[in-house]
């Protein structure tokens, strides 16, 4: 019998809340509701969260940072790398939404090998990359015209039947990125 995949393990643990709803609803796990904030504040929120990530990454015990506490649970440094990548990918998607009419994008889904490689990252380099991506996202958002916040991107299903197709506004993309940075910091430091 094949070993369960990372996604299988995560679903078995009950990670079934529809994460894209963070753009419109308060998260039932962490309580954050970035979609309720004025969208022009979201870039600054991402920068503040990147600073919080730096503080956490630099203070944490190295073994703790690189240990997966249970099957299907990411290590703290894996969560940090995922947040870095989300900030980058979602910045790219905002730019795409402004440049094209309702472009289609794939679900952002690193491979299991990529997740494993995250555990070898240097913490200081990761902290700097997180801050750079948050700064970039803030600059992208700060440059938007008022009407750009309602432009859309359609994200396709991960796998038919397991994760739906979602249409995000630019404001929703930014809200989702900020939620990921907040929520996963709580995952990483063990407070969620």
Description:
Strands 1-2-3 form a 3-stranded mixed sheet. It is mostly helical. The protein has helices at residues 6-12, 42-59, 62-65, 76-99, 112-118, 123-142, 170-189; strands at residues 104-105, 152-155, 166-169. The chain is built from 7 helices and 3 strands, in the order ααααβααββα. α2 packs parallel to α7 (170-189) and α4 packs parallel to α6 (123-142). The chain is globular.
**Overall average pLDDT:** 88
| General form | globular
Radius of gyration: 16 Å
Q: Kindly, what is the distance between the CA atoms of the first and last residues, rounded to a whole number of angstroms?
A: 33 Å
Give the proportion of residues in helices: 40-55%
CATH topology description: Four Helix Bundle (Hemerythrin (Met), subunit A)
Number of helices: 7
Write the layout of secondary structure elements.
Blueprint: H1 6-12, H2 42-59, H3 62-65, H4 76-99, E1 104-105, H5 112-118, H6 123-142, E2 152-155, E3 166-169, H7 170-189
Parallel strand pairs: 1-2
Antiparallel strand pairs: 2-3
């Amino acid at each position: 019998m094949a070993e369960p995949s990372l996604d299988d393990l995560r679903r078995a643990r009950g990670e079934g809340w529809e994460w894209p709803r963070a753009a419109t609803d308060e998260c039932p796990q962490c309580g954050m509701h970035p979609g309720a904030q004025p969208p022009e504040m979201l870039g600054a929120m991402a920068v503040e969260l990147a600073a919080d990530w730096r503080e956490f990454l630099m203070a944490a015990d190295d073994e703790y940072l690189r240990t997966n506490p249970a099957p299907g649970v990411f290590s703290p440094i894996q969560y940090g790398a995922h947040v870095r990548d989300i900030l980058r990918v979602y910045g790219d998607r905002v730019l795409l939404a402004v440049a094209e009419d309702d472009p289609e994008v794939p679900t952002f889904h690193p491979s299991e090998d990529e997740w494993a490689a995250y555990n070898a990252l240097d913490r200081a380099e990761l902290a700097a990359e997180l801050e750079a991506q948050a700064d970039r996202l803030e600059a992208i958002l700060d440059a938007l015209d008022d009407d750009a916040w309602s432009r859309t991107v359609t994200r396709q299903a991960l796998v038919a039947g397991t994760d739906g197709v979602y249409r995000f506004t630019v404001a929703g993309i930014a809200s989702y990125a900020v939620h990921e940075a907040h929520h996963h910091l709580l995952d990483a430091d063990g407070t969620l």
